[in-house]
Write a structure and sequence with these properties.
Layout lengths: L8 H5 L7 H23 L9 H19 L5 H24 L1 H8 L3 E5 L2 E2 L1 H6 L4 H10 L8 E6 L5 E5 L18
Antiparallel strand pairs: 1-2, 1-3, 3-4
Helix pairs in contact: 2-3, 2-4, 3-4, 4-5
Length: about 180
């Protein structure tokens, strides 16, 4: 391991790399950020419950950038500042693109997926979202649903939760009982 001189202000703030390395650093952040966005998008909605894709990506990217500078003396503060600013610029740019181009918004965050209609699962949706019926049963029970016949529509939302629309009173259908066991 190299000898580190304590409080070497040039090393701490600027680093030991040539100045052109800062442009490379910017490019590295852009490439990794886009790759992470694609991977999170491919991982699906359930993998990022409660957060949008961009929010989760922001947490991961900033956490990684901030962590390195705290532990490694070879990582200059300037590098971290450039990484953080680049991430912020990318975040703002993507948000602008999402508001301007609906197709891009659908690509980044996707859209809600209909998973139940008239008390019946939509099998294609379950497969495309990598959902099991057991996961959905659990979510429905948390919504107070006792029987699949009560559910008119259910959607897997962008942040990973399931929203449920019940039939009107008296319109329910017969369906699979969701209560795992009942007291006698």
């Amino acid at each position: 391991m190299d000898q580190v001189t304590s409080f070497d202000w040039a090393r701490i703030f600027v680093g030991e790399q040539p100045l052109f390395f800062l442009a490379e650093l910017f490019l590295r952040v852009v490439v990794i950020y886009i790759m992470a966005l694609l991977l999170l998008r491919l991982a699906g909605k359930r993998s990022r419950q409660q957060l949008t894709t961009l929010e989760l990506l922001l947490v991961i990217a900033l956490g990684s950038a901030v962590g390195d500078v705290m532990f490694y003396p070879s990582v200059a503060i300037l590098y971290t500042i450039i990484v953080m600013l680049t991430i912020l610029i990318l975040q703002l740019l993507i948000e602008k693109l999402k508001t301007r181009f609906p197709r891009f918004d659908k690509f980044v965050d996707s859209k809600p997926t209909l998973i139940i209609k008239d008390g019946q699962f939509i099998e294609e949706s379950l497969k495309s979202e990598n959902l099991t019926k057991a996961e959905i049963y659990s979510s429905l029970r948390l919504e107070g649903i006792r029987n699949m016949g009560e559910v008119e529509y259910a959607y897997l939302e962008i942040p990973g939760q399931i929203s449920v629309f019940k039939f009107e009173k008296g319109q329910e259908r017969n369906g699979y009982v969701l209560v795992p066991y009942q007291e006698e």
